[in-house]
Amino acid sequence: MGTVTRGTTNPNRLRRMDRWIAAVHGAELRRATDPVAVDLGYGAAPWTAVELLRRLRTAAPRTRVVGVEIEPARVAAALPYEREGLVFRHGGFEIPVPGRPALIRAANVLRQYDEDEAAAVWERLCARLAPASDRSRGGLLVEGTCDEIGRRHVWVALGPEGPRTVTFAARLGSLDRPSDLAERLPKALIHRNVPGEPVHAFLRDFDRAWAAAAPYASYGARQRWIRAVRDLGTDWPVRDGAARWRQGEVTVAWEALAPRG
């Protein structure tokens, strides 16, 4: 179920997203009885699935990864890369794995869909996640978009209940201003970057905080970013702390950026 994507992929392209998932969701993966992660739409080559297994196992050693692709030829090409903890399957948004996965990562998959179609995909994928319980918030869907070599990335994290957060991540040396990340907004937000919408106001305020933090540039782009995010947090519900900001990230509550209407 779904549409074949261009299949563009590169080694190390999703490192920022993977690093964030391991840090934020690693504890849930460690607690899971069967920690299965799905790399949905891995593309013409299996590099992202191979890398996801390696990175998640640094946080949760029992994690297994299933690469899922809707194009049969891509699945056939990936089979030689199977190993302990990593398999590849033909399929799409139905997520052809037994049980409920603890993680679904869908990077650069929904760009070609209409906004309403993307919302329906979110709902379908969230329904496939491991449910919440007394000891767990449930599985995590991470859906977003990055550039071809992973310098700029924006993603939404969703649980079984729906969207939770939006994360902006970048190689800071590649940015003139934070709003450069607007071109990588996921489908749910990219058409909402217009006056009157929260995401537009957020990026406007981020640019202002970045400009005000210009004196910190003498200490490097990282220190300027940290200062800008700290100031941004006085008006926006920033969810993370300096340890994540140092990675060139900032995570904001979904409710603050959700489209109006």
UniProtKB/TrEMBL annotation:
It comes from the Bacteria. SUPFAM superfamilies: S-adenosyl-L-methionine-dependent methyltransferases. InterPro entries: SAM-dependent_MTases_sf. This is Class I SAM-dependent methyltransferase. It comes from Streptomyces poonensis. The lineage of its organism: Bacteria, Bacillati, Actinomycetota, Actinomycetes, Kitasatosporales.
